[in-house]
Amino acid sequence: MAYGGGVFAISYPLAKALDKMQHRNRGPTHQITRCALASMFTNNQRQEERTGKYGTPRVQYLQELVTQFQNASNEESKEKIVANLANFAYDPFNYTFLRQLNVLELFLDCITEPNERLVEFGIGGICNSCADPANAAVVTQCGGIPLVIQCLSSPVRNTVNYALGALYYLCNELNKEDILKPEVVDVIKRYAASSISVSFSNLAHAFLDKHVSELN
Fold this sequence. Notes:
repeat, ARM-like, 14 helices, ARMC7, disordered N terminus, ARM repeat superfamily protein
């Protein structure tokens, strides 16, 4: 996810689901393979190659970003830092660090802010990170599900996209009663039928296919 832009990373299962939706809607299709997705991610060897022998370790760099956010005195600085953290949140190499440094809680705090940019980047970070079950569990345990659901009503398109993607990952047997409430499913069904945004429709269809069709 890039600051000023609006890009979120997706797991292989969601990539397959979206590709299915795109074929259904006869829209542009994109071949997404495990190999292509794997090339986006970091491992210890790639991390050493990128930083060099004396480079800053990833966990230290992320800690510095968290500290900068905590000490930031203006909204624009906070927006840039959260966008940067959200950009790191898609990579499984960073998942343990995100939990260790309480970055997921930082993302959730941003969702409660009146600043729509902080909300957008906060929910983007949640969407990027909660493909991992351990991260999703932290979000759920910290009361994040109602915060993600409220993002479905945002006037910011990216925020809605990220919320739909996050709910796709978060919904499971333990919390489906909190997510699959009639009023929430109704909102997602409206997005699925929407002609306003193909991404809204595709993400909503992917969610409904995975989590709602199995209930019928």
